[in-house]
Specification:
Blueprint (H helix, E strand, L loop, with lengths): L9 E4 L6 H15 L3 H8 L5 E6 L4 H14 L4 E7 L2 H10 L4 E5 L8 E8 L3 E2 L2 H10 L15 E3 L3 H11 L9 E5 L8 H8 L3 E5 L18 H10 L3 E5 L6 E4 L5 E2 L1 H14 L7 E5 L4 H9 L3 E5 L3 H11 L3 E3 L5 E3 L8 H15 L3 H6 L6 E7 L10 H14 L4 E6 L5 E7 L3 H19 L2
Helix pairs in contact: 1-3, 1-5, 4-6, 6-7, 9-12, 14-15
């Protein structure tokens, strides 16, 4: 059996891979691991029980899974606050805001409705590092904490959870959004209730699509994975900005008034420049993955902003932000971390601050995004090769160096081994799509010839 935890918690087909039994046992294991810190010890010394918050997205399997998690926690002596349907970043914020021991989110993010997942946030609202996930996995099947009598946990409704989250978001805004017409696509997901409310409270005129969750339609034809309907709505309505959440609203993509998509690289550029102007960009640097567009790098360089490169995945961006004490990071997919306000990616927070910059700058989102020249990117996957020999292969490295010399400042080549499949990913950026495709195919051919089994 492989590692249970993936890149973002435990995820699988609900009631097949991810069963109620597994959810209960995961919760019991997490209770054993996540309540060993100083905060939990202080609580117990006062005769109090540790506390955890649970939330979920609206997919139907979240109902039985959240009950299973609640049962696992309460049977382990944890008081459970059930926040109902809320975005993933709300869990992170509530853990920190209410001083809870940890949080649990039931969601499969952008996956289709039959899937579901469980992810944990530790004390302070941060995602778990690999070693802590491994410890939780190691506790599965062992004797769980089994208090009796007064030691058994209570399960109660977290009545003001949405209010706390909404108010915390609004407090971060540097300016109100009065006069801005925003179309929100909530992906029939976790943001369907809270996001329209927050943007309206911020002063925007809001049109909402994809906000009628029925438990089965999450991410179906709507949201950041399927932005077409949002692009059409923004143009038809003459709106200023479109915001597309994914199923659990930890990321977002935007649309300008022409219907053009504004991805995470564009948003990172806009926010970084604005934050530096206000003196809020720690270290005059941002964290971004190696897949971020060359155009982002060149634009930020003109503003004296450095990039700290990370591996692909928002968890690695978060790790770099914490390690280097940065205030901003993100990736193309729309995971943006505004670390002055949040401990994880937050699609509502990102959308609010992007809209605020439209107001502050007096420029359209189209103009702001246009400051960044997008270099065509071509990605070619080369399967069935020996990943372990990639770094030491002289023939491959020589050909890559030759192509990078030919590209000069107008492109780059990136090779990386997949973390989940036996393949090598070849990414080339160049001044034209045709040139990027030509060089990507050339490098892929060399990788295939040199590393084939």
């Amino acid at each position: 059996m492989g590692r249970l935890f993936g890149t973002d918690g435990v995820r699988g087909l609900a009631n097949a891979d991810l069963t109620a039994k597994l959810a209960l046992e995961l919760a019991q294991a997490a209770a054993s691991v996540l309540t060993k810190g100083r905060h939990a010890d202080e609580l117990r010394s006062k005769g109090l029980r540790p506390q955890a918050v649970i939330a979920r997205d609206p997919r139907v399997s979240g109902q039985f899974l959240s009950h299973a998690v609640a049962a696992g926690l309460a049977s382990s002596g944890i008081d459970v606050l059930d926040a109902g349907v809320l975005p993933t970043p709300a869990v992170a914020l509530l853990v920190r805001d209410a001083g809870l021991d940890f949080g649990v989110m039931i969601s499969a993010s952008h996956n289709a409705a039959p899937d579901n997942g469980i992810k944990f946030f530790s004390f302070g609202g941060t995602k778990l590092p690999d070693e802590v996930e491994d410890r939780i996995e190691g506790f599965l099947g062992t004797q769980p904490l089994s208090p009796t009598g007064e030691g058994v946990g209570r399960i109660s409704r977290f009545a003001d959870a949405e209010d706390r989250y909404a108010l915390a978001l609004l407090k971060t805004l540097p300016v109100r959004l009065d006069g801005l017409h925003i179309v929100l696509d909530c992906a029939h997901g976790a943001a369907a209730g809270v996001s329209p409310r927050v943007f309206r409270d911020a002063g925007a005129e809001v049109t909402v699509i994809g906000a009628e969750p029925d438990g089965l339609n999450i991410n179906h034809g709507y949201g950041s994975t399927y932005p077409g309907k949002l692009q059409e709505a923004v143009v038809e309505l003459g709106a200023d900005v479109g915001i597309a959440h994914d199923g659990d609203a930890d990321r977002t993509l935007a649309v300008d008034h022409t219907g053009q998509l504004v991805d995470g690289d564009h948003m990172l550029a806009i926010l970084a420049v604005a934050m530096k102007r206000r003196g809020e960009l720690a270290g005059d640097a941002v964290a971004a993955t190696v897949m971020s567009n060359l155009g982002l790098r060149r634009l930020l360089d003109t503003h004296g902003i450095r990039i700290h490169d990370t591996k692909v995945g928002d968890r690695y961006v978060l790790e770099e932000i914490a390690k280097s004490k940065l205030s901003l990071g993100g990736e193309q997919s729309g995971h943006i971390i505004l670390a002055n306000h949040q401990t994880t990616g937050d699609g509502l927070l990102t959308g609010l601050h992007l809209a605020a910059e439209v107001i502050n700058s007096g420029r359209s989102l189209h103009d702001l995004a246009g400051d960044m020249e997008v270099y065509p990117q071509v990605l070619v996957n080369v399967p069935g090769v020996d990943q372990d020999s990639l770094a030491e292969n002289v023939v491959i490295s020589r050909r890559v160096a030759e192509i990078e010399q030919a590209l000069g400042d107008s492109g780059r080549v990136l090779l990386r081994a997949s973390g989940t499949e036996p393949l090598v990913r070849v990414m080339v950026e160049a001044s034209t799509k045709e040139l990027a495709q030509q060089y990507a195919d050339e490098v892929a051919a060399v990788v295939r010839a040199e590393l084939s089994h």
